[in-house]
Amino acid sequence: MKNLRINKKRLIDRINTLSQIGRNKNKELTRLALSDEDRKGRDQLKAWFGDLDLKFELDQFGNMFGTFQSEENKNEKPLMLGSHIDSVIDAGIYDGVLGVVGALEVVQTIKEEGMTPSRPITVAAFTNEEGVRFPPSMLGSLVYSGDLSIEEALDTVGMDGKRMGDELERIGYKGENLPGFIKPEWYIELHIEQGPILEKENTQIGAVYNLQGNSRREITFTGQANHAGSTPNKMRKDPMQAFSYFSSSLFNYINDNELDTVATIGSIKLQPNAATIIPAKVTFTLDMRSPEQTGFDHAQQFVRALLKEIEDDGKYGVNAREFAIFDPVIFDEEIGDTISASAEALGLSMKKMTSGAGHDAQMINRIAPAAMIFVPSKDGVSHNPNEYTSDEELENGVNVLLQTSLTLLSKSK
Known about the structure:
Alpha-Beta Plaits, elongated, alpha+beta, Aminopeptidase, 5-stranded antiparallel sheet, about 35% helix, about 20% strand, 2 domains
């Protein structure tokens, strides 16, 4: 069905519908995982599943699935397509949503053509991909892959002090199925790039063959508050000196060794945070990413050794909380090649690329062959209300998802 195309207007209408769920009085879009706004988004997605007569199922962590199947193929492992619908604070409208509504559009297009695929097609929306309210990110797909127990995940306490299991019950989206109950044959996630490469290179489609490893920590150095003018530097227990040594040592190590690792200190808090007082405590976040396992491992080892050095000096208290350590991912080459071929067959320019951001696909890749499709992000902006991808670029991405799906399904007959 090389000439089959999706309905662009229907796709955009669904994106726009979800974009209005979670708007506050200032028109900011915030749909945090397991919030009332998330429940309303889930209600809308469930209604769309019903409109398409998909088999709706939930697992115990609130991961949502709508499956298009027939009597002939219902015992086959499905092709799974999806992403997430939770958002960051003051979000854009495409992150995650494109992968879910794009999957719906693929299913509806195939159904309207009267086709009976060789395998079921499951549309997935995973819980708490963003990890804003309940760190870490990609928790729903991590649980689904079996790499985190459902018991531990449900006991996760959010930034607001609420427990995930209780919030799932409260919004009515805790299911009975064990995570992983649907075993996909393949998983494909369509997503905006969230970076500038495709737009800068005037390329329409990214075929994502690998994804950077990611570690996230919260680190605290504790010293002693004191007067800013009367204590000599050598006699101070100033945790900002420890912070300065740590950050300069880390960045110099990465740069001097030309590692493919990036490190970001994105948040820093001082106590008591006053101009005339030596701080008693500095707490900061450290996000580190690398596409290659060797560089990723070297950077982790260096950070741990550096923290131990500061602690062993005996001058400062050191506490490092590791939120997540996710190794680099190599996606399935067959799916990647099929994405590339589908883009070229549609006359679209294509680039093989690495994902700099984390996605549910990296977790599902642990249990099934997976890959991703990227479409351009204007100016590389995401997690921001200025996040933008044109209607035509969105349509291109979903058509590539459609043709990739049809090709994989034809191979499994």
